[in-house]
């Protein structure tokens, strides 16, 4: 994806509220955001050249083969190419990258990208097992607690190498819950406070290793969509957000083949994105990063270059990543507060970053934000996507 900047722009978007949506199936969620994104862009289904649908599924719902469900939004989609994309928790960003690739290759002028997941129809035990399918099951299948167990192990190893960082993790959780109050699309809009997040209690028990319930993102239903257009088309439309950079870096699936605490894939994706954008990290006004667990956000501070390895706690304990800090991280509330419907998450992050750089983020707005970073991660730092977004027009 190197050199991708400016070949595709986001020209419209839509986003459901994330949470438990009884009575709404995958099809309903897809239709809602597909219609909403087209309306937001001022375009019709007839204008779309290709469709990409991002969803992990794997057993969350019975309906597979969902790409053509987008056509339920408008019969004018019929006979257009539609493809399902999956890349674990980075599925949404992978679908966006497919759309950008199509535009860069001249195969499409306008692309609709939808990300969706319906996770709440199955039990918690089934959710854990389905998410564990994004691990290397030959070696990691017996880890208790599903993906929380994997990141619980990562947290334990981090604490062993760098010391107990429970204070920092609680600060991250408290920050993201506080930020989420301002996000009308967030699943949990409650400022839980540091003390609640820091202490084990009946309502905040230990889940895996040192991770408590408040360290874990939420099982969720939801969808988000973006319309992508080539530069010439974007200039003719009402609003446009350009990709200053869009990078993908994949690493080995087995954790045993890498230093899992180094997050080398995210670090390389950030390095390439910033180089391609000709920017430094301090040029960014905000970042939406993949806080599937608080320990992930902590290590991502180090991967993006905010601190040296092992010093990520400084960024949160000294207030750097607060909404009024030098680099606000997850002003939307992140996955922690917003929810994490797997296939929708990457698209959601791009929507929220686009809202920021166009001044449309309402109570979430970072003043005068013009450059936003997005880091979406699939698995335990396996599939790593970094985008840098800016408004096409100053």
Overview of this structure, please?
The protein has a domain at 9-122 and 219-235: Peroxisomal Thiolase, Chain A, domain 1, CATH 3.40.47.10. The chain has 13 helices and 11 strands. The longest helix has 17 residues, at 146-162. 35% of the residues lie in helices and 18% in strands. Helix 2 crosses helix 13 (342-357) and helix 6 crosses helix 10 (294-303). Strand 10 and strand 11 form a beta hairpin. It is globular, with a radius of gyration of 19 Å. It has helices at residues 26-41, 91-104, 124-132, 137-140, 146-162, 166-180, 194-198, 231-235, 264-277, 294-303, 312-317, 334-338, 342-357, and strands spanning 9-15, 50-54, 82-85, 110-118, 206-208, 211-212, 221-229, 241-250, 286-289, 372-378, 383-391. The model is unreliable at 1-6 (pLDDT under 50). It is of the alpha/beta class and 394 residues long. The strands form 2 sheets. The chain has a 9-stranded mixed sheet. It has a two-stranded antiparallel ribbon with strand order 5-6.
